[in-house]
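In response to a reviewer's request, we include the raw inputs and outputs for one of the modeled complexes. The two entities were modeled together in a single run.
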Amino acid sequence: MNTPTARQPDIAVEMRDIVKRFPGVVANDHVTFIALRGEIHALLGENGAGKSTLMNVLSGLYTPEEGEIFINGEKVVFHSPRDAIAAGVGMVHQHFRLVPTLTVIENVILGLDDPKFRLKLEGARAKIQSLSEQYGLKIDPDAFIWQLSVGEQQRVEIIKALYRGAQILILDEPTAVLTPQETEELFRTLRSMAEKGHTIIFISHKLDEVMAIADRVTVLRQGKVVATVAIDEVNKEKLAEMMVGRPVIFRIEKPEIEPGEEVLRVEDLHVRNDKGLPALQGVSFVVREHEIVGVAGVSGNGQTELAEALYGLRPVEKGRIFLYGRDITQASTRDIIREGVAQIPEDRHREGSVGNMGISENLIMKHYRRSPVSRGPLIDWGYVRDFARKLVKRFNIAAPSIHTKARLLSGGNLQKLILARELSSEPGLIIAMHPTQGLDVGATESVRKQLLEEREKGAGILLISEDLDEVMQLSDRILVIYEGQIMGETPGEGADRNEIGLMMAGENRSGTGDTSLQRNTSNA
Amino acid sequence: MTPTPSSSSHRLPRLSLERRLTSPWWLSWVIPIASVALALLAGALIIASQGVNPWEAYRAMFEGAFGTGYGVAETLVKAIPLMLAGLGVSVAFRMKLWNIGAEGQLWMGAWAAAGVGLFLYPAWNLPPWLAILLMMAAAVVAGGLWGAIPGVLKGVLQVNEIITSLMLNYVAISWVLYFVDILWRDPGGLGFPNTAPLDKAIWLPKLTWIPFLPKGHRVHAGLLIAILAAVFIWFLLNRTKWGYEVRVIGENPEAARHAGMPIVRNIILVMILSGALAGLAGMAEMAGVAHRLQRGLSPGYGYTAIIVAWLAKLNPFGVLLVAVLFGGLLVAGDQIQLTMNLPRSISDILQGLILFFVLGGEIFGRYRLRLR
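The model returned the following structure tokens for the whole complex.
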């Protein structure tokens, strides 16, 4: 099923035997990748499979140690993204590279050599408008980036690439930040671009997406190509197996459990963000024992501030937070930890671990204040070593030793470390933020299982995630957040994806038929 | 003509830096050693520009600092304040608090100790051992308070501690010199700007029992204080809950916040500890070497201590070792001025070069150089 060696006229990209090494790993091990003109080609693989590396090679960010690249049959050597752009290869990164204080036009022409000295915005505006019409990329050229939604910013990135004449467009996990509706819109754009002869390379680890949008798919595993197949020759299960190397079960067992007592009650919570603007505006909900409450929403709608406020990291402007009926609105993080609240933070590296410290030192970050980890002012490192060894074993953290620095762990292992730390204190409430973001299929499975285990044991779990599938799969109830307000609540079982999507986009359904959303108690 | 070269393929190969994910164990040793060697090489050019054979000059410097018993003793004398102030600086740096104020904290420590020694000791008729302890305590308090000022400003109001601690140096030195020149000036001092000498009984005792050092050397008990302080700091950082907090905050304040660690309080405490150690350095120099408060008591020990702490990678025992090397450099500077007719500032230049090259060299610990 693999591709012909003779240069066919419809081959847009041909990467032959690409080898890219990083210290200790071969990120791309003789990878051969071919994308045709006018196709949407998905690049599928787990984290660390080498997808992004391969595309960074194609977009000129990395120089491969071995291998050749042909664009439209011509051999090219890229020294920088500039060279790649000149050859018609553009990339939309996962994290946008836009200047928030500049307008759309200014961002699009940023870094271009033409015009040389004086800005000629009029010409640029016309060209942006024509691109925008041609591909259905609705955008106001004079808007400032900071005024735009994430979906709109993504459109700017795409326009930026098209403006530079990209015939081959690489998108790195473009749907991670979008609502289902925005995703649909993006897919429409991508299809129309493909029809006009562009080649779209779509990096993803989400199988549903790949099945929905791709014409062909190349699966990578551990730096090597597993296969390139046409999408109608495979199904989701088959792709997952190619990706992971073993059959994958998609359904997780979630036993029916009656929720118990109330663990967390939030009443009319008002919180401001770092810029001093309102981030939460009257949020109320409860989480009970044996219950996972999911918070769905596009990122940046107050989720971070909610988690921080609950964990004592952000001052509460108005409203109250109760843990087991006790008011913890003004409590310090330290007290909240002592009361048995665990947290799986949004950013594993920045908030959840200390990269330059060993596994054992990372494992005691929440325990070090109490016996037996410490006695009086002293830490009992002998005990810590035993403690760490036990947790490493119990949570299957793969590392050469308990002194291995946290920054050397893979994403999955680092998340296991954080789970080990947070769950080992037998928390009553777990605030889990994007707990499986960036994890591979295996690690995702194990994290989700652990959360469900904690639910069975009696913990209340607040699951904040952008992954709608995850929220729908794990939650007993789902709250949808938009601009700091709860738009509505649905039961997790049999939730209507479309309905949630509309609420994520700001349609208010609260007050319609749900009882546990007690907005009326807020001024008590 | 089929495979057309891309627009840039005739570009010259160029250097680029690539991030290292891991670094081999020996790298953390090779880099600083190579950096110091390169600094000495650069220094050789400067020495040569003065018409002196650099090889000769370096040999004379080494001989002067380490070649004789007298040289070793003087090197240790100069190393003592560098050790104590270097320990202070390293503690603050551990928490990424850039305390540039060791010099001022050192002067304040010397000032407070001198006050105790010159006035309280005779007035209260204290036993000498108690007076020495009180002098130490006064230096710790004064240095600690001087460090607390930038600490509080940083912790509570997020004022940049580099600026405040640096500016406070000038305030401290002026404050002390006001006492030296006017309030506490020795009337029988023949017009020299210094206080009366301390009573001999409360000088820090000489370590006469150290073997191989010549009779009458000036190495004093400050050396023991510095070694004890290093052990204390090591223990504090590595064995206590508080030290663990300091290390976590230094490495990743955001993670520390998420673990509920008291960051503001620890910023202030660390600055106090840092200032207290620098204050002890001032006391040791005053009560162990000068035996009075005087102009030029510190030739900038508090600044050299920054280089010492950094070169030692903030390791307390490393500070002791590096302080001896820099003490040697100071002695050697005096030496070559006398014997080689080179300006004394050569040793300052070398200090600067060493710091420059070591800081520059650190990039190779994190990145590798590639030709492409």
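As requested, we also summarize the result in words. The longest helix of chain A spans residues 441-457. DSSP finds 16 helices and 22 strands in chain A.
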